[in-house]
Amino acid sequence: MTAPGAVGHGAAEADADRVFAALASAVRREVLRLLRDGGPQPVQALADHFDMRRPSLSEHLKVLREAGLVSEQRSGRQRIYRLEAAPLAEVRDWLHPYERFWRGRLRDLGALLDRLPDDDPA
């Protein structure tokens, strides 16, 4: 996977770009959290958590659907949204080298601090 926004990439990278773009919004991240913690929910139950008009939330849900992060199922007049976590595995895989980088840096910092003499005020 290349960096989001990279030029000259294929369909897989375009899908990843959609996922990263979807995650850029705090509202969309909160929708994903609500679905993760509460399971599938009708749009009205999700809307009750936000101080915005329902059409605005519907736009956020559309972005999440197009990124493959949620699915929509109609049940009578209701639309039920469900978290689809598989695309998040790509995000995790992309972030993993950075996590290793920072763990190494923090380990090195810890080792340096362990070697420094204690500042004993007495």
Describe the structure.
- It is a single chain.
- The chain is mostly helical and 122 residues long.
- Helix content is 61%, strand content 11%.
- It has helices at 11-23, 26-38, 43-47, 54-66, 86-115, and strands at 41-42, 70-75, 78-83.
- The N and C termini lie far apart (55 Å).
- The protein has a three-stranded antiparallel beta sheet.
Helix-strand pattern, N to C? HHEHHEEH
Record field, number of beta strands = 3
Instruction: Give the overall pLDDT as a whole number.
Output: 87
Q: Please outline the major beta sheet.
A: 3 strands, antiparallel
The share of residues in helices is 55-70%
**What is the terminal separation in angstroms?**
55 Å
Strand content: 5-15%
Rg value: 21 Å
Count of helical regions: 5
Low-confidence stretches: none
Find the structural class using helix and strand composition: mainly alpha
